[in-house]
Amino acid sequence: MKKRISNQKITSNLWFDRNAEEAVNFYMSIFKDAQIGRVAYYGSEGFEIHGMPEGTVLTIEFMIEGQEFVALNGGPHFKFNEAVSFIINCASQEEVDYYWDRLTAGGDEKAQVCGWLKDKFGVSWQIVPEALTDMLQDPDKSKTGRMMSALFKMKKLDLKALEAAYNK
């Protein structure tokens, strides 16, 4: 029997309709530090319970950037929303651009602001330059206020523009 890919105590579970395998492969193509773990399949009872034919993927364990996830094919009962999102902390604008461009492919960036996007599966992500947190922690409220005013007008975050507003 194959073992889990980590000993992480808490694992994020992502409920997909019928495209968990497609979603996992999409994430594997984007994140450099990524691996697939155990895969479980529906038996004959899968159709009875969730309308899934026998042999359809039930769950796929996967890990991206040290974070363990499980993707579940559970049917159309639940949808993703912005109440839960995954933050990608980026060291540079190039890294922000990399993740933004790949995760918005087929997704939705129009309805989101402040670095949030929805990928083509409806999962919400926030692509954030690491320097943003440092700027937000500054006790000089005029600096953080200018930066926040700029931030609230952005979809994809522009580190140079944020730093310019902060340092103005």
TrEMBL record:
Q: Which organism is it from?
A: Chitinophaga defluvii
Give TM regions.
none
Q: Which Pfam families match?
A: 3-dmu-9_3-mt
Q: Which InterPro entries match?
A: 3_dmu_93_MTrfase (IPR009725), Glyas_Bleomycin-R_OHBP_Dase (IPR029068), PhnB-like (IPR028973)
Protein name according to UniProt:
VOC family protein
Matching SUPFAM superfamilies: Glyoxalase/Bleomycin resistance protein/Dihydroxybiphenyl dioxygenase (SSF54593)
Residue intervals of the PhnB-like domain: 8-128
